Amino acid sequence: MSALLSIKGMTHFFGGLKAVSNFSYDIPEGVIYGLIGPNGSGKTTTFNLITGIYSPTEGKVFFKDKDITAAKPYKIVQSGIARTFQNLRIFSSLTALDNIKIAKHFGSKSGLISSVLRLPSFMNEEKAIKKESLELLDLMHLSHRAKESAKNLPYGELRRLEIARALATRPQLLLLDEPAAGMNPKEVDELMSLITHIRKEFKVTVFLIEHHMQVVMGICEYIKVIDFGETIAEGRPEAVAKEPKVLEAYLGKRGV
Amino acid sequence: MKQLKLPKLLIFALIFYSAIQILYGTEILNGYILHIINQSLIYVILAVSLNLINGITGQFSLGHMGFAGVGAYVSGTISTLVFKINPSSPNGMLIFIFAIIVGGLAAAVVGFLIGFPSLRLKGDYLAIVTLGFGEIIRTVFNNIDYVGGPRGLLGIPKFSNFTTIIVAAFITLVVIRNLVESSHGRAMLAVRENELAAELVGVNTTRYKVMAFVIGAFFAGIAGGLFAHLLQMAHPTQFGFIKSVEVLIMIYAGGVGSITGSTIAAFALTFLSEGLRIGIRAIADATGLPIGGEWRMVVYSLLLIFIMLFKTEGLMGTKEAKLIRLKEVQ
Fold first, then answer.
1. Where are the transmembrane segments (chain A) (predicted)?
2. Which one of B226, B272, B276, B278 has the fewest beta carbons within 10 angstroms of its own beta carbon?
């Protein structure tokens, strides 16, 4: 079986600093895949390389067997990869609803002329966009916030709004950059059931970066642990949790 | 049977148009006031189109009047030098409309040529490029003898009148408003809000920046053409940096991102600037103080400073009047 996302020998330097070193991995379709590692270990850089924000110094990225290495970010999104950000990037002075509608942009077919003249085809499309966007808000328990300016939303809701916005692009692969960051335990529980629900509902493969061990161990089916840009362990959660190298990276060496 | 309902903005425009025509016909309004109204309406076109670039798409352009200059000179050349029309020539009006549209298109082409390479720059850098562009345009006109060089292009027929100008302003308002409330407009707003996030929800940010620039330049070109056919001349100094700043001030005073704000500010500031001219002259006459008309700019500037101090987000913020807003899609 070929993988949905396949990274081959990816290396990235920031000047003299090797942020990512010779990464190779395959993410099969349908899994929830977790990437963990201490701060500065190259996790977010990996996401930035996949989504085309940086182009890798070496190596290739394949999505659905197509080479997407260093393609334009918007093209990568349009091919079916969506992401969220560790430090939220919300369109903050727009409403929650508009945040979602924007992400429906590239699916829309109305040209400039029919938009300006508000032809029936355009109006129908607008209706459909609004309906689907409201459904997504509903799924994320944000319906009551639709007309609210995004900057007024509390942090946990913004995290969910960003996930909803990513889903609005109809991705096959969803990259979540620390989705549980800054959430309280109750919100974390909700988030976990939400992620598993999303996977089922949208048939989307999830690739997530997380510090929160509860989330990683709770929902990921496969985990990769990296430190200083190198892979130190990978496999099923139960197995990885027992790796001495992982314990060392997170807790320090025993008996020093 | 469904009743035909006119959009409220159209009704408002028709009422405004008839009222001014009646007032002017009965000589309650004199030609001078009508002239200022015409100028205000042209400034509405300039301010709303600049707002599409600066307010909606969040790019900082300082050369808007440069595009107006292109429109003014191109349309003026067509009507004055090529077709040599005057208001009594047969098909004069058609040729005038043709000239205005070609002027707008020429400005749009220039907008594309400037925008495509320079819109990868951000913030201050883009401002400097557009500033430079405005000055280049001015200098180019200053040095082409065919269009009058430093004397300017004179003898342009007076085709712009209240009717043609209000139609153009109305079309500009509707087109830009409808554009903003479409998926294209939302893409432009996304560029303003967070360019990286826009790109990562699938918006081709370069394309939308260029598109805003080109559409903005088109309408600026139309406004320039109308100006030339109102003042019956096009002069390089009309399209310099200071004039671009005047339009910029309008969108900031009205509220960046608000079409309503730009419209109100275009009227208010044009009238204020003219009103101060009269007011200061009256004060000088009454008191015998040696203050000339140039003092109006001091007062005008002070007023602007106060607006910015006490209402930083401008008159309207990013809000729109009910009249301008479209009915929500259900």
1. none
2. B278
